[in-house]
């Protein structure tokens, strides 16, 4: 026991009892009985007050089964390989019974017949390879300590198996025997119809969210989501690590722009993109949120690390731009970066903040731009809301999102540059 903590006299607490008179013992016994009764009644009262919450959070399994879309076959809404897409869902309870949180899974994109053909042999292209059960954590958790504002909502994890952020169209499928199904938009439409039919049509509150490619899908489809919901519902969208920048790589090439061009043309994505943007630009540029975010009418919250490791490794410093591997160690762990490399990364951060300057002025917008070497941060308890979660202005991501969604206060948090934030959760790819 630390020196500054008090200890009982030698012999322990019960040695005191022997030093008291009979009268004192009687008074102590009655007092103790009253205290125990009060404590017991307090526990009973508290448990009754929280019965609804406790009954559900104690009995709901962390493992949530996969539900295939019931009308996948009827609507021809298929994953890349022709299997049925689906979702995982936990019903809301108590005050959250008529509130819905949808989270779109991430997982990149495929931009060629070859990469899509490889992808269809994985869980990102076929439900045949998906886990039959998944754990819900972070913003999908039913634990109020981990997910204070949304724990009792209807929570849905949407599985991603089309390779184009739920924006592909069958008109672009190949008729030459290549068995690839580009049905992303059909999958999303069928899924939304199913959720509406099982209760979402009477939602009072709704939040569409997504991570990475799912975050991009959230931005692309946000206003469409708003349109299908009740007019008087509070509907908003949250994109986690979905704001992909259209930046040159370190060799001066537009690697990501070229990649997106192939994705959009391969799967006919332009039909799902913002119409105003497509009218004025090459459609593939409208796959970048910076080109259409100003046109989104529904309130948006952006969670994005300023040093997003996926963007650093694939947009800023793809392998082709670093033929000698001089950035290899830096890409594994940001603490390995030398001063010159950090200066380049600070430039990437500056580009993000400059691109978001107009969005920041939107009174309905929210943002949490931290200086961490990480990617998605909302689906893990460690980064969403825990004692050790990243914080800006002493707010976790969960607290910031809650402030914004419920209009408790303005939530536009921008971190100071790396390495100033000691609460950051930084990935280290050099170990494990």
Can you describe what's shown?
The chain crosses the membrane at residues 25-44. The chain is of the alpha/beta class and 432 residues long. Helix content is 34%, strand content 12%. The chain has 15 helices and ten strands. It has helices spanning 14-17, 22-49, 51-59, 72-75, 113-119, 184-197, 213-228, 255-267, 275-280, 309-316, 328-332, 339-355, 357-360, 381-384, 397-405; strands at residues 63-68, 86-90, 99-104, 133-135, 154-158, 205-211, 234-240, 300-305, 366-370, 412-414. The chain has a ten-stranded mixed β-sheet with strand order 4-1-2-5-3-6-7-8-9-10, sandwiched between helices. The longest helix is centred in the first third of the chain and has 28 residues, at 22-49.
Summarize model confidence as the mean pLDDT: 88
Helix content: 25-40%
What is the overall silhouette? globular
Class by SSE composition: alpha/beta
List keywords for this structure.
disordered N terminus; alpha/beta
Describe this structure in a few short sentences:
It is built from 15 helices and 10 strands. By secondary structure, the protein is α/β, with parallel strands linked by helices.
Furnish the topology, listing elements before pairings.
Layout: H1 14-17, H2 22-49, H3 51-59, E1 63-68, H4 72-75, E2 86-90, E3 99-104, H5 113-119, E4 133-135, E5 154-158, H6 184-197, E6 205-211, H7 213-228, E7 234-240, H8 255-267, H9 275-280, E8 300-305, H10 309-316, H11 328-332, H12 339-355, H13 357-360, E9 366-370, H14 381-384, H15 397-405, E10 412-414
Parallel strand pairs: 3-5, 3-6, 6-7, 7-8, 8-9, 9-10
Antiparallel strand pairs: 1-2, 1-4, 2-5
């Amino acid at each position: 026991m630390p020196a500054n903590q008090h200890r009982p006299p030698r012999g322990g607490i019960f040695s005191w009892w022997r030093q008291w008179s009979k009268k004192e013992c009687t008074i102590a016994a009655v007092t103790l009985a009253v205290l125990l009764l009060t404590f017991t009644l307090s526990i009973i009262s508290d448990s009754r007050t929280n019965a609804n919450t406790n009954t559900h959070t104690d009995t709901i399994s962390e493992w949530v089964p996969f539900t295939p879309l019931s009308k996948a076959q009827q609507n021809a809404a298929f994953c890349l390989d022709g299997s049925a897409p689906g979702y995982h869902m936990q019903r809301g309870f108590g005050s959250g019974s008529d509130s819905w949180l949808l989270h779109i899974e991430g997982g990149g994109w495929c931009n060629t017949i070859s990469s899509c053909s490889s992808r269809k042999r994985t869980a990102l292209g076929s439900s045949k390879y998906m886990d039959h059960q998944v754990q819900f954590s972070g913003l999908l958790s039913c634990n109020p300590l981990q997910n204070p504002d949304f724990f009792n909502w209807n929570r849905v994890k949407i599985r991603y198996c089309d390779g184009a952020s739920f924006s592909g169209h069958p008109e672009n499928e190949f008729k030459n025997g290549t068995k690839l199904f580009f049905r992303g938009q059909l999958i999303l439409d069928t899924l939304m119809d199913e959720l509406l039919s099982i209760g979402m049509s009477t939602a009072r509150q709704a939040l569409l969210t997504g991570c990475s490619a799912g975050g991009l899908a959230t931005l692309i489809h946000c206003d469409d989501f708003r349109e299908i919901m009740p007019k008087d519902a509070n509907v908003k969208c949250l994109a986690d690590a979905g704001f992909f920048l259209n930046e040159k790589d370190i060799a001066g090439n537009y690697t990501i722009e070229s990649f997106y061009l192939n994705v959009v043309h391969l799967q006919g994505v332009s039909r799902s993109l913002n119409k105003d943007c497509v009218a004025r630009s090459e459609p593939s540029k409208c796959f970048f949120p910076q080109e259409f975010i100003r046109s989104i009418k529904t309130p948006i919250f952006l969670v994005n690390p300023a040093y997003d490791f996926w963007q650093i490794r694939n947009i800023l410093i793809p392998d082709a731009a670093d033929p000698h591997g001089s950035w290899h160690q830096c890409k594994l762990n940001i603490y390995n970066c030398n001063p010159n490399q950090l200066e380049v990364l600070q430039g990437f951060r500056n580009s993000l903040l400059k691109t978001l300057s107009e969005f920041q002025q939107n009174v309905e917008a929210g943002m949490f731009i931290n200086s961490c070497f990480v990617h998605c941060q909302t689906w893990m308890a460690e980064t969403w809301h825990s004692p050790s979660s990243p914080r800006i202005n002493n707010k976790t991501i969960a607290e910031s999102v809650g402030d914004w969604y419920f209009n408790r206060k303005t939530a536009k948090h921008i971190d100071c540059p790396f390495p100033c934030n000691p609460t950051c959760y930084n990935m280290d790819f050099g170990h494990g």
